Adenosylmethionine-8-amino-7-oxononanoate aminotransferase (Ketobacter alkanivorans), 449 residues
Amino acid sequence: MSLNNSLMQRDLQVLWHPCTQMKDHETLPIIPIKKGEGIWLEDFEGNRYMDVVSSWWVNLFGHANPRINDRIKHQLDNLEHVILAGFSHEPVIELSERLVAITPEGLNRCFYADNGSSGIEVALKMSFHFWLNQGNTRKTKFVTLSNSYHGETLAALAVGNVDLYKKTYEPLLMTTFTAPSPDCYNREPGESWEDYSLRQAVAMEQLLAEKHEEICAVIVEPLVQCAGSMRMYHPVYLTKLRAACDRYNVHLIADEIAVGFGRTGTLFACEQAGITPDFLCLSKGLTGGYLPLCAVLTHDRIYQGFYDDYDTLRGFLHSHSYTGNPLACAAALATLDIFEQDNVIANNQKLIQKMADATAHFADHPNVAEVRQTGMILAIEMVQDKTTRTPFPWQERRGLRVYEHGLKNQALLRPLGNVVYFMPPYIITEDQIDHLAKVAWEGIELATR
Ligand SMILES: *Cc1c(COP(=O)(O)O)cnc(C)c1O
């Protein structure tokens, strides 16, 4: 038996994989990875795969990046971890200073969690608790967008809106208000992204006008609803939303866990709308895809709302064991160095254009309803009927066929349902983008037959 196969057998004896119907693996092989280098993942038989999904949207500068490796190794020899209550360390202080400096104006406090979902819980609890500390006991609800995703823990799931992940657990979840998404896939023929997003802002405004007394915060994924099939909208929606939240005395939580750190073309998506949220959640790319870490940034008014004598019990008594882990902070610092030293945001513009050019012809495919792009995220929506935009029945799992074709052709393209997307690390080359476009086209041809 090959090493690949024996590892797969051992794996299937003892593991339970995330977001997976394990029975699928009776036919679909698990791929054990021996080594990562740059954009490449290599298995035990020497097969290579381009990591086009950035290992679930986390990797920014390739696997085994020497600069990130060195920083972590150096940190490892000094301090692997220390309790962050009562104690502190240099990496977490420097990281906080730098995050305050590069995030939208006004955000000047960093709280840490150890993954994205936990960070969402932090923002929700802080928002609710802030109002409570003000003596406001009526604000207990959150507003979410349809088709949104904020993670898998129960409160994060409750403020999400993708049925596939949420519906089963509905009896366990707090109730939320849902406003229609500005997702521009649903715009009328001929309508611009801007006009459609503006039109959708009206419903949000009405909801806030009616219910604001009960509402702590609105939570959104700025510009791209990633887990919700890479649906996209215009920044004007965020500008309108910020104004409405101010008008109705409601917090705005920006979940940039997936879209932060250059994915949308700017360092943070909120920049494109010129807004500062009350809470900014960052994870995934924060450590360059190396280690779990989440930063929740907020501003002085929130911070001061908790600052008081201990016995008032206004403090935020929330913690995670690995809060602010030094190794993860070191990886984050190395990641920020790369952004600065390599002028990444400016240099990505060429890759963004290349991704558009290499996939422009997909729009003419008879089973492609839309090719959409926001910065370094490009998505291709496969449909059964192009004119009516009728989707393929989900049970047919057409996307899986694209995935299988990709694996045979050096590409880890892991579609979301019927949406094939590229969200590559920023070290991808123009030739690699051409190769991906070719493999994706063939995959879509096979899958839609
Ligand atoms: C991935 C993701 C999360 C959850 O982060 P985890 O680290 O997987 O818990 C939350 N929000 C968005 C927008 C995400 O893409």
Observations:
- The mean pLDDT is 97.
- The chain has two domains: 31-64+345-447, 69-342.
- The domain at 69-342 is CATH 3.40.640.10 (Aspartate Aminotransferase; domain 2).
